[in-house]
Amino acid sequence: MYKHRIIKTLQELKTVQPYWERWQNHANNDFAQFNLVCQLRPEIESPFVTVIEQNNQPHALLCGRLERTQFAPSIGYLSPVRVSAKIMTVIHQGLLGHLDEEAARESVYYLWSLLDSGVADAIEFHYLSEHSILLQALQVYCSPWFCEKKPRWKIHREMDIPAEGGFIEHKVRSKHRSQIRKKQRELESAFPSTVSWHWMSRFDDADISVLCARLEEVAGRTYQRGLGAGFMDNEEYRQRFVLFARHGQLRVQLLEINGKVKAFWFGTVYQGVFHSSETGYDPDLRKYEVGTLIFIRMVDELAREGIRKLDFGLGDAPYKQRFGDEFWRETTIWLFAPTVKGLALRSIFRLFIMLDSAARQILQKMELTDRLKTIWRRRMVKGEMETDKSENDT
């Protein structure tokens, strides 16, 4: 028999800190980072951590936050509807400890009782692995009226890093290898004696603000920024950089031209694994394939450090498919409250899933998916550049 309780303050979190830090195994479920994010994001009302106890001792933790935010289902990149809602967000890799089938079932019933009591309008479980016992319990024990049970799978990939450098080029065909070297020569020819690559693994606190400001010059021109994603020079990123830098875990690869950052890739080394976080490059350098060039440089540096695995993070991409050695599927699950608002959110969510699925099928049949993505991303970059120009003219 298991008991459940909720931790809703940062002070209370300290009571489970020894267990949390013993079980944490991923950059995203790091205890210090979780505390930091709860303090910095204005939409977070409080931590909302479920403690599953056995014999009066924590047996597992479900790491979540209670957020006053916007429920915004999407069709592709578009989110035309936004509804204010109180959401309990269970973070990616947020299940810590030991959860067996019985504990998973009881946890689902407990969370459902919380929604029934009106504590939130919905619970969002971020990217549960297909092997997750919690995912299995949600699919079996939740009512289909209040839970979207059909998975919308996303692929998550990892890559093994051999001890020797230069192995990325050897993994591609000779024709592609020649093309990569050609792009490197073209870049150096276009900017003679000004191209430099910098690998950063040690930082002073004072370095972080300067680094973030330099990264922002590039990030502000990427398509990710147009989508409201990617790196942004704000207090949260700066403090997260400081946090991981102090623990010797932050890694940054830079491409500089004439002393200015033109491309970057950064992530966190956590328990021997490099977790890729964000990347970006100046869109004016697209023809030189600097994304590929900086990736090769970064992986070589990781190999020299003795890092033997790279986690590509959320989302899939052609380069991840090409270089990834392992993969698994993940899906985000929503559980809605048995209230009028919960039913309304559930209805909106189901409608948008149907529209998104139909749109994707039409684009695939017309073989327009990749083309539309490219057009949209370039439009995002153009929009960002026009905004910058307008602001500079003011």
What's this entry about, in short?
The protein has 394 residues and is of the alpha+beta class. It has helices spanning 10-13, 17-23, 31-40, 101-116, 133-141, 167-171, 174-190, 205-219, 223-226, 235-246, 290-305, 318-323, 340-365, 369-393; strands spanning 3-7, 44-47, 49-54, 57-71, 83-97, 122-129, 154-160, 195-200, 250-257, 260-270, 273-281, 309-311, 326-336.
Structural account:
This protein has 14 helices and 13 strands. With 394 residues, the protein is α+β, with helices and mostly antiparallel strands. It folds into 2 domains: 3-154 and 329-361, Aminopeptidase (3-Layer(aba) Sandwich), CATH 3.40.630; 162-307, 3-Layer(aba) Sandwich (Aminopeptidase), CATH 3.40.630. Strands 1, 2, 3, 4, 5, 6, 7, 8, 9, 10, 11, 12 and 13 form a 13-stranded mixed beta sheet that branches. It is globular and about 65 Å long. Mean pLDDT is 90; it is low at 382-394.
Radius of gyration: 22 Å
**How much of the sequence is in beta strands?**
25-35%
CATH topology of the largest domain: Aminopeptidase
- Report the mean per-residue pLDDT as an integer: 90
Number of domains: 2
Described by the principal axes of the CA atoms, the overall outline is: globular
Extract low-pLDDT stretches: 382-394
CATH architecture of the largest domain: 3-Layer(aba) Sandwich
Q: Element order, helices and strands? A: EHHHEEEEHEHEHHEHHHEEEHEHEHH
CATH homologous superfamily designation of the largest domain: Gcn5-related N-acetyltransferase (GNAT)
- Which class of secondary structure composition applies to the elements? alpha+beta
* Euclidean distance between termini CA atoms: 66 Å
| Helix segment tally | 14
Biggest sheet layout? 13 strands, mixed
Helix content: 40-55%
Which CATH C-level class of the largest domain is it?
Answer: Alpha Beta
The total strand number stands at 13
